[in-house]
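queue> pop job 88
queue> type: inverse folding (structure -> sequence)
queue> payload:
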């Protein structure tokens, strides 16, 4: 069969496409795990944000797919439906399958016929389900036995039982098939970037995170041989920067340290690695872990700080993953110690913070912003966003604090919930105003590391960070709220990808 797999073009404020365009790891993993006679093409539409319609039309005409698969996050749902309509208008008989977080957690949104009719929904982990779906389709459409699959018969949708999560240790999941990619232009500040996985899952249960509903509380790991083979394959495809997309690699610190050693021993430490980490793991094991990470090539560490105030951490259910411990006892918050370890080992902190929680006041938001200004190298500040089936969504709904049901706004940098004391707009304004200037401070470090790219694109990067601003606003002749409104209008317009 000919299959076209698409990731959505929608991006959010912290992913300016001039500096960051990352591949979607799910699609190449699916492509690597179907039977070899299928012809699979993977297109990350983030690479063609301004040419989505033309690109999809071109690909459908050229590849004649029998099936199209879309990977969808919640804020991309509207775009996904438009793309499905487009594909169906081009090839009416085509089969449409959706997967990823949104179809898995909001199944009902894909089973009605209102727009974009879907034939199959792959819920949860996709590789084996998708492989079996293609087999069943070729063999005459008996889908009943495929766990993790929902399928349409006429106007009715059937939902098979869930598929248990994959243990990963065996040989069942093959490496991603990177040659299936048909678009070019992946970059992390000028370096070709790729994504790899070393593990899946997490045993914490932060209230804002979709992972627990998606796959339960568990942690499974790939063997180091497989991880190193994956890194080598990414390098062979040109990668000079790698984002490790594990949900929580720092759950097993001993394993992470051993992995760093394996990367060093294999000579794969000339690559710039980025990883997500818990503050507690770095703070409690930083003496050994941080130097090893540095030696292995880690450059950016996305720290899930979430919030610096204990009240907010409790609401986010993120206190224990941010706890410093001594002799098994909790002794305080781990954030500053973690940041210190990373800085002393010459790594940069991407500071993940969430502001605009139900009890937030102007002061509590400002305290977090001030913290980011002082301590983090690149702010990644978001607003709590009520994604399907997270515990946080229920809390916000019960308290009547959700002010927007426009899912395309659920991108994390648009405030769609208010607090008891602040409007959503005020919360977003505070974050927006503070964050722009924080981002400029990383420019010298980026210039030193990637001089050619930064010199060539500094203007565009600056323009992206300050979009909405004008000469008048820089001269202080224009009210900041006017600039903010212009920025919001730009974002609104941007969301119409086709
Ligand atoms: C890595 C990651 C990123 C990277 C993206 C790198 C990349 N391009 O892939 C970065 C940091 C840039 C990022 C950004 C964002 N992310 Co993110 N991210 C993740 C993370 C940690 C891992 C995703 C991953 O690659 N997993 C590995 C792959 C193999 O697994 P997978 O994606 O689940 O795919 C499997 C199945 O879902 C399924 N599947 C997926 N697609 C398809 C398609 C088909 C056709 C089929 C059959 C199956 C299928 O099969 C796959 C293989 O088993 C998750 C989860 C988490 N714990 O936080 C969040 C997560 C996906 N991100 C999320 C969000 C919201 C965002 C942001 C909007 C804001 C944010 N919170 O940071 C931005 C938007 C990005 C953008 N486009 O602008 C949410 C999505 C929630 C939702 N309900 O939509 C998650 C779940 C985190 C959360 N908040 O809970 N993210
Ligand atoms: S520690 Fe990270 S991956 Fe685990 S539940 Fe919390 S936010 Fe999700």
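queue> result:
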């Amino acid at each position: 069969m000919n299959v076209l797999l698409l990731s959505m073009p929608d991006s959010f404020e912290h992913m300016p496409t001039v500096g960051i365009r990352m591949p979607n790891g799910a699609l190449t993993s699916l492509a690597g795990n179907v039977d070899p006679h299928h012809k699979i093409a993977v297109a990350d539409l983030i690479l063609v944000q301004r040419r989505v319609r033309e690109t999809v039309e071109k690909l459908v005409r050229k590849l004649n797919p029998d099936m199209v698969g879309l990977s969808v996050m919640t804020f991309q749902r509207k775009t996904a439906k438009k793309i499905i309509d487009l594909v169906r208008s081009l090839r009416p008989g085509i089969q449409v399958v959706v997967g990823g977080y949104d179809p898995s957690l909001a199944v009902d949104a894909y089973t009605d016929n209102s727009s974009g009719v879907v034939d199959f929904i792959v819920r949860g982990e996709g590789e084996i389900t998708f492989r079996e779906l293609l087999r069943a389709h070729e063999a005459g459409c008996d889908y009943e036995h495929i766990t993790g699959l929902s399928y349409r018969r006429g106007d009715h949708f059937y939902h098979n039982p869930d598929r248990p999560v994959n243990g990963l240790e065996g040989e069942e999941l093959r490496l991603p098939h990177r040659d299936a990619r048909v678009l070019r232009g992946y970059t992390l500040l000028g370096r070709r970037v790729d994504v790899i996985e070393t593990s899946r899952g997490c045993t914490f249960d932060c209230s804002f995170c979709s992972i627990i509903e998606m796959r339960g509380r568990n942690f499974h790991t790939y063997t180091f041989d497989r991880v190193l083979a994956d890194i080598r394959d990414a390098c062979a495809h040109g990668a000079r920067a790698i984002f490790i997309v594990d949900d929580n690699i720092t759950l097993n610190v001993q394993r992470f340290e051993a992995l760093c050693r394996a990367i060093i021993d294999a000579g794969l430490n000339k690559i710039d690695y980025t990883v997500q980490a818990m503050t507690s793991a770095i703070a409690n094991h930083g003496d050994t872990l941080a130097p090893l990470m540095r030696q292995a090539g880690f450059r950016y560490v996305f720290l899930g700080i979430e919030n610096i105030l204990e009240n907010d951490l409790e609401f986010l259910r993120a206190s224990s993953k941010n706890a410093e411990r001594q002799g098994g006892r909790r002794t305080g918050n781990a954030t500053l110690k973690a940041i210190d370890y990373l800085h002393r080992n010459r790594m940069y902190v991407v500071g993940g913070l969430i502001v605009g929680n139900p009890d937030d006041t102007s002061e509590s938001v400002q305290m977090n912003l001030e913290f980011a200004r002082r301590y983090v190298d690149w702010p990644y500040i978001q607003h709590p966003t009520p994604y399907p089936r997270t515990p946080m969504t229920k809390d916000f709904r019960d308290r009547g604090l959700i002010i927007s049901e426009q899912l395309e706004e659920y991108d994390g940098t648009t405030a769609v919930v208010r607090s008891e004391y602040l409007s959503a707009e005020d919360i977003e304004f505070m974050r927006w105003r503070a964050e722009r200037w924080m981002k400029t401070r990383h420019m010298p470090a980026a210039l030193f590391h990637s001089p050619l790219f930064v010199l060539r694109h500094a203007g565009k990067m600056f323009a992206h960070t300050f979009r909405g601003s004008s000469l008048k606003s820089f001269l202080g002749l224009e009210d900041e709220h006017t600039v903010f409104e212009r920025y919001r209008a730009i974002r609104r317009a941007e969301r119409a990808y086709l």
